């Protein structure tokens, strides 16, 4: 009768220890989350204080520390922004630049990823074309812009192509390097498990290069806008680049800063979107690639 009694006591002790361990782990998890929240809050507060400090010095120092003609003023920039936000033409310019950038970004990203993946599989072609691609990528796009305007005209097409050329090379080299950089040991394991070349490429190499591709997509985002703005600077009758050029050529410093702020805010929003997509894609990578190899 004593042995079952001792067993029950042991079971009770184990359950109690397990409960205490779970409570300790939960408390530690909450503590870590609280520390992370405090840190993020501190960073945001410091960033806000920095921005407010710069704006205050900028506004108060105008006419005392520097000439507002060259640097403008926060109040003047806010006035221009409020005026533009009430202007229908501003939204038309924003829409046109957004269309040009979106199409150029998608065209450059898709073609760069596709060709980078193709050349990663076809090494001979990659070695043949690599010096030519490096040479083409070294051409300053502002020097290429006049040719594109001659070839495609002053409408949206020239800006889309100019934007796409900037994005293309970033995505091409990122994809090529990412696929080639996959650990050979992982590829050998896939071969041992019976995967063929196609399965290795789509289930090992391409997912393995996902971080490179997503990083390339994030880095190429501002270059897509740069291509559009350069094109609109040189030949356009609408768009944010045209509006920026109009302000700068009329020596309107406040208007120039206002357009730069609009572009900066747009880039920050798009970068946040890309980061969210990257987090989702990287989070689901193990789920999408793991079972495929075992079934091969």
TrEMBL record:
The chain crosses the membrane at residues 45-66, 102-120, 132-154, 160-179, 223-244, 256-277. It is a multi-pass membrane protein. One of its GO terms (biological process) is transmembrane transport. One of its GO terms (cellular component) is plasma membrane. Coiled coil: none annotated. It comes from the Bacteria. Keywords: Cell membrane, Membrane, Transmembrane, Transmembrane helix, Transport. It is found in: Cell membrane. Residues 90-274 form the ABC transmembrane type-1 domain. PROSITE patterns: ABC_TM1 (PS50928). InterPro entries: MetI-like, MetI-like_sf. PANTHER family: ABC TRANSPORTER PERMEASE PROTEIN HI_0355-RELATED (PTHR30151:SF20), ALKANE SULFONATE ABC TRANSPORTER-RELATED, MEMBRANE SUBUNIT (PTHR30151). Belongs to the binding-protein-dependent transport system permease family. This is NitT/TauT family transport system permease protein. The lineage of its organism: Bacteria, Pseudomonadati, Pseudomonadota, Alphaproteobacteria, Hyphomicrobiales.
